Every structure is written in C-alpha cells, then in structure tokens.
C-alpha cells in the first residue's frame, strides 16, 4: 500500500503543476503574439527531450529524489497540455470573435466568453494525454531514482527474480493509469456542459 500511495501522490502533484502551468502558458502563447515570439521556440527546443533524459539533471537540481520524481512527472504531462492549449486558443472561430467585436465586446470579454470556452475541448484532450504520460514518466523515474512506488517495486522484483509482484505492479499501473485518465475525462466533460458528443447526438 505504501508503494501505491507514493506513486499516486507523485502523479497528482506533478500533473496538477503541469496542468496549472501548461494551461496558463498555453493560453498566453496562443492569445498574445509577443509572448509566443518570446518563449515558444525555447519550449519547442525542450519538448523533444524524453523525460528519462531529465532524470540525471533532476537529481542534481533538487535536494531530494522525491522532488526530482515529481519534476519528471511534471515534464511528462506539461508539454501535451501546453501544445493542446495553444492549438485550442489559436483555432478559435474567427467569425465568433468578429461577431463579438461588432456587438461591442471588450478584449477581456472575447477572451473569457469565446476563446477559453472554445479552447476547452482541446485543453481537455491535452489533460487526458498528459495524465497518461505522467504515469509513464513516473514509473521510469521510480525505476531509476525511487525508493518507494510501483515502478520501484516492479523493478526491484525483477532484480530479485520475484516475478509475481512484477505482474501485480504492471496491473496496478494499468488500472490506476486508466482510472485517473477516466477521472480527468469525466471532470473536463462536467466543465463543458454545452459539449455534445456524436454518441449523444445519435
């Protein structure tokens, strides 16, 4: 139970930070051209670096391995959320913005009432993908730097040739990854009551 709880706390911490930063930065980059010109290219240079490559640097950057593993989890979730948010904001229907301007809406009202709701489906997709990536990166970090966690338990069982915990660890990772992804999906749907899926239409 200690291993499961340790992994859950790390995923929730890293994912929450990634969601906050990814959505905030994504909206700013997608809406304000000067901000995109300033920081998008440096972020794009960092995006292709796999999370496992950050592990040695994370060990050096943070005073504890716990903070380092949360950071690796954050890295895994951050970029899918960021890119999805940027694309969602940039793909806002121009006609809706023009109509809002013709009706006298201010920039803040356009942003709050048109841009953000219009970007929500894309943001939701980024959150779902980010949660899956967070679990993947966490397990990798726990294998290399962990002392507790499902990834650590699975790898330690392999090293000691204790195979039943390996299967159990794999099942737990799959189960919790699927459950947390489903929870994120359901929560984002609750935040978009206006969204109607094809299944609902049929």
Write out key terms for the chains shown.
202 residues; mainly alpha; MetI-like fold; 9 helices; 83% helix; 0% strand
Largest sheet: none
CA-to-CA gap between the ends?
43 Å
Overall tally of domains: 1
- Give the rounded overall mean pLDDT: 83
Number of strands: 0
From the spread of the alpha carbons, the general shape counts as elongated
Structural class: mainly alpha
CATH topology: MetI-like fold
The radius of gyration over CA amounts to 20 Å
What is the H level of CATH, i.e. the homologous superfamily? Answer: MetI-like
Fraction of residues in β-strands: under 5%
CATH architecture: Orthogonal Bundle
Number of H- or I-type helical stretches = 9
Quick gist of this model?
Helix content is 83%, strand content 0%.
Notes on the structure:
The protein has 202 residues and is mainly α. The protein has one domain: MetI-like (MetI-like fold), CATH 1.10.3720. The chain is elongated and about 70 Å long. It is 83% helix and 0% strand. The longest helix has 39 residues, at 107-145.
List the helices and strands and how they pair.
Layout: H1 2-31, H2 33-46, H3 55-61, H4 65-90, H5 94-102, H6 107-145, H7 150-159, H8 163-190, H9 198-201
Helix pairs in contact: 1-2, 1-4, 1-6, 1-7, 3-4, 4-6, 5-6, 6-7, 6-8, 7-8
